[in-house]
Amino acid sequence: MYASTGATLPTGPGWTFEPKYDGIRVIAVATAGEARLFTRNGNDKSRQFPEIAAALRALAARAGRSLVLDGEVVALDAGEPARFQALQSRMHVEDPRAVALHATQAPSALVAFDLLLDGDEPLIARPWRERRTRLERVLGRRGRGGKGGRLRLGHTEADGAALLARARDAGWEGILAKRTDATYAPGVRTRHWLKLKVEQRQEFVVGGYTEPRESRKHLGALLLGYYDRDGRFVYAGHTGGGFTHAGLADMARRLRPLARATSPFTEAIKTNAPAHWVRPEVVVEVKFSEWTADGRLRQPIFVGVRDDKPARDVRREPVARSGAA
DNA sequence: CTGGAGTACGCCTTCAACAG
DNA sequence: CTGTTGAAGGCGTACTCCAG
Which segments constitute the ATP-dependent DNA ligase family profile domain (predicted)? Predict the structure, then answer.
């Protein structure tokens, strides 16, 4: 079951709110003898996260029945759910010795937020609040806290505004709003679950663009930068999202007269398609989810051209972040 | 050491199908 | 006729693997 994107925080009774955990969404199928973690594409990730699989087997053994949970595999940092990048190094690792090393050095946990099957009893036709009660009963106190635990109970609360405020402070990607009376519709994107994103946006200067790859016209992606304190032009990533056909044509018209032979960026950059350089004069507004550890934009989307700001004044803006998501 | 291919996540736009 | 929805296509970052 997938969430639709919501524009505003829903109000009134009948909604519950959860943090948007930043990891890999999985359906966990657990029996006493075997546990599997399936991604959205149906790939089995249980070999990549053996510590979670073991905890699931133990849970099913203790419960004396098989269980199917919906949740998110997250990296842990000091016992708390951390950022997505910490997981990426593990996503494709298959060698058993490498997996074992990761499991101790970069431990992960499953944050469970739904229970779909409890023994022989399917719960997907039951309302969320009932499934939640059953989930809490199954996970017990171990799920609620416990920094060492590999299975966590996802947080949920009734005050959406408060949770959204926390999300902003802590630099989370966003929160989810769920109807407490909604049944679980497998594989379906529904308005009963809404994703409310905490988006960041700021201006960047276009330092070049890449050639279009497939059937796209005019340009592929904008190469974005900003000026640091020493006046150096720093690369921030590239974005090809957010353009309409007309927007691409307009951007190409703006950039063509600014062509130059060499890169304006201080660092050498790698692109998926051949790059064209321009004098860094066009200022664009870009929304994005977060800065990566390497100083790149994650999920950057072009919003529009800013004619009102001199390119020289474009800096990297500080982000409020008081903890990990 | 480097570059390209392949895979994972997810976003946005477009377009066709469908329901009211 | 209009609005919604889902799939496809085109982007991103980050990682591994492999060839040279």
Answer: 101-241
